[in-house]
Amino acid sequence: MASQTNPHFPLLLAIAFLLSIFLSVSAQYSPRFACDTDNNPGLKKFLFSDSIDRLGIPSYGWWSEALHGVSDTGPATWFNKTVVPGATSYPQVILTAASFNESLWNLLGKVVSTEARAMYNTGVAGLTFWSPNVNIFRDPRWGRGQETPGEDPLVASRYGVAYVKGLQETEDGDEDRLKIGACCKHYTAYDLDNWTSVDRFHFNAIVTQQDLEDTYNLPFKKCVLDGNVASIMCSFNKINGVPACGDKELLEDTVRGKWKLNGYISSDCDSLDVMFKDMRYEKTPEQVTADALNAGLDLNCGDSLKNFTASAVKKGLVNETMVNRAVTNSFTTLMRLGFFDGNPSKQMYGKLGKKDVCTKANQDLARETARQGIVLLKNNLGSLPLLPSDIKSLAVIGPNANATVAMIGNYAGVPCKYTTPLQGLSDSVETLYEEGCDHVMCNSTEGFEKAKNIAAKADAVVLVMGTDLSIEHEALDRTEIDLPGQQNLLVSEVAYAARGPVILVVMSGGGIDVSFAKCNPKVTSIMWVGLPGQEGGGALADVIFGRYNPGGRLPMTWYPRSYTDTVTMSNMNMRADPSTGYPGRSYRFYRGETVYPFGYGLSYSLYVHHLVKAPKQLTISLKKPATGQCSKSTCKSIDATDKVCGSQSFDVEITVTNIGKMAGSHSVLLFSYPPQVIYNSPQKQLLDFKRVQLGPWNQTSIKFKVDVCKQLSVVDKDGNMKLPLGRHVLQIGDLKHSINLKI
Ligand SMILES: *[C@@H]1O[C@H](CO)[C@@H](O)[C@H](O)[C@H]1NC(C)=O
Ligand SMILES: *[C@@H]1O[C@H](CO)[C@@H](O)[C@H](O)[C@H]1NC(C)=O
Ligand SMILES: *[C@@H]1O[C@H](CO)[C@@H](O)[C@H](O)[C@H]1NC(C)=O
Ligand SMILES: *[C@@H]1O[C@H](CO)[C@@H](O)[C@H](O)[C@H]1NC(C)=O
Ligand SMILES: *[C@@H]1O[C@H](CO)[C@@H](O)[C@H](O)[C@H]1NC(C)=O
Ligand SMILES: *[C@@H]1O[C@H](CO)[C@@H](O)[C@H](O)[C@H]1NC(C)=O
Ligand SMILES: *[C@@H]1O[C@H](CO)[C@@H](O)[C@H](O)[C@H]1NC(C)=O
Ligand SMILES: *[C@@H]1O[C@H](CO)[C@@H](O)[C@H](O)[C@H]1NC(C)=O
């Protein structure tokens, strides 16, 4: 055994023991921070303090979370009244994604990492945060869909990269340093938690190479290649029979080999134990540990590595090289974070402290983020915005009308404070309030009469309905996508009794079948506010009273209930299958009816798009003949690889005019419809997007640069990028334009 010949073996094993969630120190000396050279001058001789006092490092908790604000979900971060009582709680990611504003996503990362670093300095947070969640929101029932940027791989990738950079990048631009360490999770094809009898600890996701390449893996690839993320977390589930955390092809060969991750691969909590106990993947926990280390895992959330690495090595199941690699990847990340640079207060972010958490500016940004994300779905002429001077009394009704925790969703922390919908609206007008239902489950109609009474008296009605974590959350997927319980009935009865406009506000993570309200002329407006964060009520009031002109767009398809009646959640195929009647998933593949489509969202203004410039014909010159595939005359597609296709781009230039009376912020989405020459291509895909601010009657021009080989290509059956030749149709709003692609 290698162990008997290597004098460092005991040390290596000792370090391996540390690779559990909490690095623990057995020595009597327990420093407050690593490399305290003032109190221990002997440390100076080590190059990286420069060091570790024979492992004289303080215990380090790896698990912190900062999905939409610093959270206390992981044990390494906590709040208490004396030190840091709370942190700014931004809207849940699904709403932030609806803003389609990349600079906002990046800014949120910066602000959240500042609060995180401030909390680290005060001793109540770690430096490694296991956020963001960039899984594809594949099915509307998923209880964690709210945590993600939605169903589109390009949006998820852009969100992931912008947020990761915001969290990680230091002010001095030194890429070796990290402000905090981010983590893109959960790799991969993880988007089912607990649906009927299927759960994530047993689920084997059967995924095609095509779906893996152009959908499930894309956000992770971009997190590593474009975001330089410090960590990837492997998921609980199996992918085509192999647990993600034990899959060498996914971890070592792809994440580290092809994408060149500069950082560590962590498990979920505790994936290794799940592999052993729930999946019964191996006969012994040592073998599971060896599988994971051999596959490329560096860190385990849980104590499996701590308990079983030593015996796995002794049994010869895994060698020292693998253990060294795991230790090195984890510890170099801590070095990049300044963990071994001595007293945190003397470092780059050393001046940050309690005063930098929950600042007025940070809380204002929570309100601004919600405003930018809110999606207006229906607005009969003259319904919204309401003029406060016209409203002598406003009826505010519904189980979420005075919501607090329901606004912050999964992976939240303790917010600085809450502004509930009722409080936000009451700041502008006189309100009357009735819950109607005392809980989102809404099994009783007892409160309906009181609600109808105030609706009949008031000048306008706002119904705040939807879900909360009792309906959709981690470990709980929905089985139905209607409003829960008797909520539909409450909305309809209140609308019937009302004498003024009726505004239905849907507070939820996932999409809801609100067709009944869409079709009901008495429901004059519908808006979706996601889970809008601590300032949700203020943002909602800003939109309702026209202080903010809504510009959010749905980052996921809203399906009718018939979709969940016929499609099993465990079917991972993105592509439709006409032979079985399977309708496919997301706007890229699903052709059936929707309640509201991906990208949908109204404004109080109208915007007109006009094409200024785009080519009609494009001739691709190949770097190298597309040998073996086809001759020039019969060729239907070419390899979109750098070797063959090279770099060629064109501009699409348009003008956008705001022809309304209000200034507004408008997201322009550029789609393409590729020619259907590659098997199972998407019918439509998002190429790019941009959000612009426009005054009333004002115009701006927008230029999209389209990289032909990278952006117009699609993935074939075997997972290879192909550029289909022929007619590509570009679409922006109502504008369509064809480009003929030739070689
Ligand atoms: C708050 O946390 C700090 C740091 O961990 C600790 O010293 C203090 O005792 C805690 N206070 C309370 C009231 O729990
Ligand atoms: C690791 O060992 C500890 C102490 O024996 C035990 O409590 C824990 O359950 C073990 N964990 C696993 C995953 O086996
Ligand atoms: C250690 O194990 C890995 C994975 O099985 C193997 O590729 C490598 O050659 C081994 N190294 C040594 C020094 O035995
Ligand atoms: C609304 O919620 C807030 C915060 O929980 C609470 O203080 C207030 O009393 C509630 N208002 C009503 C009318 O119930
Ligand atoms: C409503 O129904 C749910 C689910 O059946 C049940 O768990 C809950 O206790 C009920 N609530 C009330 C107030 O009856
Ligand atoms: C699934 O959900 C049910 C009902 O809430 C719960 O009892 C069960 O523990 C959950 N299972 C898992 C694996 O999360
Ligand atoms: C995008 O977000 C940033 C940060 O909040 C904001 O300054 C900018 O105005 C937003 N862009 C648009 C067009 O709304
Ligand atoms: C209109 O747009 C131009 C540039 O596109 C800008 O300079 C001007 O300030 C805008 N006017 C208003 C009223 O927004």
Kindly describe this structure:
Residues 1-27 form the signal peptide. GO terms for molecular function: alpha-L-arabinofuranosidase activity; xylan 1,4-beta-xylosidase activity. It is found in: Secreted. By secondary structure, this protein is an alpha/beta fold. It folds into 3 domains: 9-356, Alpha-Beta Barrel (TIM Barrel), CATH 3.20.20.300; 363-566, Rossmann fold, CATH 3.40.50; 606-742, Immunoglobulin-like, CATH 2.60.40.10. Residues 1-29 have low confidence and may be disordered. The radius of gyration is 27 Å and the shape is globular. Helix 2 crosses helix 12. 27% of the residues lie in helices and 17% in strands. The strands form 7 sheets. It has a 6-stranded mixed sheet. Strands 17-26-25-20-21 form a 5-stranded mixed sheet, with no helix packed on it. The protein has a 4-stranded parallel sheet with strand order 1-5-8-9. Bound molecules: 2-acetamido-2-deoxy-beta-D-glucopyranose (8 copies). One 2-acetamido-2-deoxy-beta-D-glucopyranose binds next to loops.
Highlighted features:
single chain; about 750 residues; alpha/beta; TIM Barrel; Rossmann fold; Immunoglobulin-like; 3 domains; 6-stranded mixed β-sheet; about 25% helix; binds 2-acetamido-2-deoxy-beta-D-glucopyranose; xylan 1,4-beta-xylosidase activity; secreted; Fibronectin type III-like domain-containing protein; glycoprotein
